[in-house]
Write a structure and sequence with these properties.
Immunoglobulin-like; five-stranded mixed sheet; elongated; disordered C terminus
């Protein structure tokens, strides 16, 4: 009985420590707020915090759906980070930006638990998104779905998420090329027509 109690206390302490570590894990979009001119590119990093620094827990997989205002922002691309692929076996990456207003991305590491534990810092960038600000206004980028798994493939159930906000400030309007060309042709036609009308009147007056 005396031998069992210390082992039980150690196991309880380990479980409590695991919950504390998981509760400290967070995933955030950075910067949390930024302002850009309409028509400019916008870059947002997806960053995880609170993992072990070269030790467990490390990240073995993630799965996210993000929403944004498609009338203000246009999603251009996503570039994955490198810390789930530490250069031994690699990882499987997937993303989908085809639905306006929604981004899906996920990555599953194929690396061993020991390689992930030793190869990952406590925080790093999971992916970087590139948007284009297409109209003036303020758009939030929010988490619709968020899932994390550790180096053993077990779900990390305790973590927090933080979205971001992009303020697009109206810039110089880009002219409609087709309309401008039509107006230019109309103006040239008017200039050519008026001299001819004046010349016709002068000929008629001389004949009288």
């Amino acid at each position: 009985m005396k031998r069992i109690l210390p082992k039980l206390a150690t196991a309880i302490a380990a479980i409590a420590f695991s919950f504390q570590v998981q509760a400290a894990i967070s995933v955030a979009l950075e910067p949390a707020s930024q302002s850009v001119s309409t028509g400019s590119p916008v870059f947002v990093d997806l960053v995880i915090h609170g993992l072990g620094n070269g030790a467990a827990p490390s990240l073995g997989a993630f799965d996210f759906d993000l929403s944004y205002n498609a009338s203000l922002l246009s999603a251009a691309s996503v570039a994955f980070g490198s810390h789930l692929d530490v250069g031994v076996v690699g990882s499987v990456q997937s993303s989908n930006l085809s639905t306006p207003g929604l981004i899906h991305l996920d990555e599953v590491s194929l690396e061993s638990a020991s390689d992930l534990n030793s190869g990952q810092p406590s925080q790093f960038t999971l992916a970087t998104f590139a948007f284009t600000a297409i109209a003036p206004g303020s758009s939030s980028i929010d988490f619709v779905l968020a899932g994390l798994s550790d180096e053993l493939g077990q779900s990390i159930t305790q973590f927090t998420t933080q979205g971001a906000r992009v303020q697009s400030i109206g810039g110089v309007a880009v002219p409609d090329t087709g309309s401008s060309r039509a107006l230019l042709l109309l103006g040239l036609g008017t200039l050519l027509l008026f001299p001819r009308q004046r010349s016709d009147r002068a000929v008629g007056a001389a004949a009288e």
